[in-house]
Amino acid sequence: MADVILSVELREETGTGGARATRRKGEIPGILYGGPRGAVAIALREREITRALGSGKFLSHLVEIDYKGERQPVIAKDVQFHPVTDKPLHIDLYRVEESQLIKVEVPVRFIHELESPGLKRGGALNVVRHEVELWAPAGAIPEEIVIDLAGRDIGDVIHIDDVKLPRGVEKTLQRNFTLATIIGRGGPSGEAETAPAAS
């Protein structure tokens, strides 16, 4: 069951004029894609979209749309924002099933920095990827990928294959790419730089 449920109406007026008319009514124009029904022009309530965006679960999680009591799970594929006001102007939604694998960007979070010998000795965490692209079931998209830094020392490299992904979740790239490294203050060589001796 999705945490976010959005009411939608079918939109008869399309094009630029139709989109403006929809916004004047306090609604946001959008397109619903995917599945045998094809593309459908829809209108969503601006208040509901603003609340959904504020929840942080709209752009990376399964949501449901409700059309006259009929519900359908969807994923937000694209949201266009006003360049000045940052208000949503147009939304593309894609029909999915809860078990369907979809490609998503999931944030990476690092924990237990104080338990890393390398960071305690003055090393620095060099984050290579702040997000990871994954295949995940639409109904079970992970909130984040957590990397434990406990025991990590200067010179350590953390790869994607070092991370235990949730059940049913897979990386999109086949190679074992780097997520982060712990480097010394002098750079990748490891130890802190020492000042040159006075001559």
Mean pLDDT: 86
Query: What is the strand arrangement across the widest sheet?
Result: 1-3-2-6-5-4
Which residues sit in consecutive blocks of at least 5 with pLDDT less than 50?
189-199
Q: Percent of residues in beta strands?
A: 35-45%
Polypeptide structure, described:
- With 199 residues, the chain is mainly β.
- It has two domains: 5-95, Beta Barrel (Ribosomal Protein L25, Chain P); 101-183, Ribosomal protein L25, C-terminal domain (RNA Polymerase Alpha Subunit, Chain A, domain 2).
- Helix content is 12%, strand content 41%.
- It has three helices and 13 strands; from the N terminus they run βαββαββββαββββββ.
- The chain has helices spanning 15-24, 46-55, 117-120; strands at 5-10, 27-33, 40-45, 63-67, 70-81, 88-95, 101-111, 124-127, 131-137, 145-148, 157-159, 170-171, 178-183.
- Strands 1-3-2-6-5-4 form a six-stranded mixed barrel.
- The longest helix has 10 residues, at 15-24.
- The protein is elongated.
